[in-house]
Amino acid sequence: MRILITNDDGINAPGLEVLTEIAAEIAGPKGEVWTVAPAFEQSGVGHCISYSHPTLVARLAERRYAAEGSPADCVLAAIADIMAESPPDLVLSGVNRGNNSGENVMYSGTIGGAMEAALQGLPAIALSQYLGPETQGLDDPFEAARAHGPEVIRRLLARGDWSSDADFRLFYNVNFPPLPAPAVRGLRVAPQGRRQGSNFGVVPYTAPNGRRFMWVAGGSQQAPAQAGSDVAVNLDGYVSITPMRADLTCHLSLDRLTEALDPQLPSVEPGSLPFRKREVTESR
Asked: What's the rounded Cα separation, in Å, for the pair 152 and 174?
């Protein structure tokens, strides 16, 4: 088996070393593990690609490359150039330092790398290590991912839905709970959730020269979410597995919206809103 690995924390990230070990175990002694990862940290870039400027790709060692771009760029570089003559059988993205459960999915470069692989028709899995109070004192904060990652991937490869006949191929989002490896309680298939009352915001900052800047700040990662969601099962000690696809259509609303926009129905009165405007609060 030929496995491509990437991440969004950068080529020198500890989580990528963990993923290299996991991928080598999955590939087996006759397999190959290829690395194409960002030269610098790309956390929070989502599924962006470097469409308007070229991306430098450097060979660091045999089957190991760094690209000055996003995780999606790295996947494109691998399948269209570096591994073009013999594409990978599987793409693994991670292991991210921090969870990609809940609303974090929408910002994650780790997810973006796996999504690009799926869009290119390749089987892909994103892996992330939830961090919390019980991982702070560990010598290896990736302990849960390192210990349980190979078995999770094997089970997905053996029993997951890898059909490729849909317009948007499935990929999988795996999050390991914020616990030592022996404390992990098992696996749960879970939908993406959202933490209650926890959003990304900004912290404004004025530099000594008077110019205005801002830091983007995340909300509490320990905030609760809907029961049974990825966040909830992670905080309850389980590895979450969430099937995903790049299609963002809300299929449940299609028929209702088609009926609601019937030209025979009255429109909203000018100046009125059928919904309440969200109150905007400043992040501190």
From this structure: 8
48-70: pLDDT as tens digits: 999 999 999 999 999 999 999 99
Residue 9 annotated as part of some ligand binding site: yes
Q: Is 96 labelled a binding residue?
A: yes
Question: Three-class SS of residue 106?
Answer: helix
pLDDT confidence of 284, banded at 50, 70, 90?
very low
Give the integer Cα–Cα distance in Å for 247 and 249.
Answer: 6
Question: In whole angstroms, what is the distance from residue 204 CA to residue 207 CA?
Answer: 10
Q: 110: domain CATH number?
A: 3.40.1210.10
How many distinct structural domains can be found in the chain? 1
Q: Is 163 annotated as a binding residue?
A: no
Is 217 inside any structural domain? no
CA-CA distances (angstroms) from residue 2 to 29, 89, 141, 263?
Answer: 11, 5, 28, 54
Tell me which residue of 38, 33, 1 sits closest to 19, measured CA to CA.
Answer: 33
In this prediction the pTM is 0.92
In a domain, 211, yes or no: no
201 domain residue, yes or no: no
pLDDT digits (tens, 9 = 90+) for 2-30: 999 999 999 999 999 999 999 999 999 99
| Domain coverage including residue 32 | 2-195+223-253
